[in-house]
Write a structure and sequence with these properties.
By secondary structure, this protein is of the alpha/beta class. The chain is built from twelve helices and ten strands. The chain has one domain (3-216, 254-261): Aldolase class I (TIM Barrel, Alpha-Beta Barrel), CATH 3.20.20.70. It has helices spanning 12-21, 33-46, 56-62, 64-73, 92-101, 115-131, 161-171, 198-207, 223-231, 244-250, 262-278, 285-308, and strands at residues 25-29, 50-55, 82-89, 105-108, 135-140, 145-148, 151-153, 175-178, 213-215, 255-260.
């Protein structure tokens, strides 16, 4: 089916407005009914546009029919300002499958490939996607860290500003994910003193004025969730995220989409662990899943307002 049949929108108008008004559209990953409904409640409460991000492993977990059935059941309209995005598509076939299902945006991640192979793969995906009016995100530079089966690397490489014009022109991509010091997973920094490479971001933004730039691996890893998880039986030592102040600064420099996954995972886990520990006789999934869902809502609202700046930006 076409994404328009689901009332979804692609990301082009979203990103143009975000650049013009200097905010970032939140791209929150979801994996089930609780995480999907929590993200949408936060977006609607704050009147924010939102990108619903789904990794390939999350698609396998939910299954195509359940995933798209939940999207259909939400009865979106274009005025809802919701895009459905394939996060870190690892192949042309994965992107083609998402487009066929009704995704309105796809990411092709060829960042580990040699430059010319990355270009060729992204161009092939863009040609297919644009024939269906689907927007395409590509990546240049590599993020370290582990978050999903398609998002793991032991090494990182910053995006080379000298490559970005050629890459965008030759691929035809609609947005570009760049590497300036963010990282996948919950262990993003070794110390609080580490800074994002705003010098690289500034040079890229100068070479690609008004072109949508994207940050992956940009969760802030709220420490109160880490503390709660550890307090109630977890063992997440040394988890540290990206300073929210730095992320907000990035939105002033053409970063118009920020991906958040680990924060929601931490919020969900913290709520469930606390609920099960405080109510040891309880065994109703609605109670403990609902407790986790509540914390995702609260965290997404906080990040929409204080990091993305996308509250009240829904046109």
């Amino acid at each position: 089916m076409n994404y328009k049949d689901f009332g979804l929108v692609n990301t082009r108008a979203m990103f143009a407005d975000a650049i013009a008004r200097k905010y970032a559209v939140p791209a929150f990953n979801f994996y089930n009914m609780e995480t999907l409904s929590a993200i949408l409640e936060a977006a609607r409460t704050t009147h924010s546009p939102v990108i619903l991000a789904v990794s390939e492993s999350a698609m396998k977990y939910m299954g195509d029919d359940l995933l798209m059935g939940m999207i259909w059941g939400k009865k979106f309209t274009p005025e809802s300002g919701v895009a459905l995005h394939l996060d870190h598509g690892g192949s042309f076939e994965a992107c083609a499958h998402a487009i066929e299902l009704g995704f309105s945006s796809v990411m092709i991640d060829g960042s580990k490939l040699p430059f010319e192979e990355n270009v060729a793969l992204a161009r092939r995906v863009a040609e297919l996607a644009h024939a269906h009016d689907v927007s395409v995100e590509a990546e240049l530079g590599t993020l370290a860290g582990i978050e999903d089966e398609n998002t793991h690397s032991e090494t990182s490489s910053y995006t080379d500003p000298a490559d970005v014009i050629k890459f965008v022109e030759q691929t035809g991509c609609d947005s570009l994910a760049i590497a300036i010091g963010t990282s996948h997973g919950a262990y993003k920094r070794k110390s609080d003193d580490e800074k994002l490479r705003f010098d690289i971001l500034a040079e890229i933004a100068d070479k690609l004025p008004n072109f949508p730039l994207v940050l992956h691996g940009a969760s802030s890893i709220p420490q109160h969730f880490v503390k709660t998880i550890n307090e109630f039986g977890g063992d997440i030592a040394g988890a540290r995220g990206i300073d929210p102040t730095q992320l907000r600064m990035a939105t002033e420099m053409n970063i118009c989409k920020i991906n958040v996954d680990s924060d929601s995972r931490l919020a969900f886990t913290a709520g469930i662990r606390r609920n099960l520990a405080e109510k040891p006789a309880g065994f109703n999934p609605r109670d403990y899943l609902g407790a986790g869902r509540k914390l995702i809502v609260e965290n997404c609202i906080d990040e929409i307002k204080n990091i993305m700046g996308s509250d009240n930006k829904l046109n």
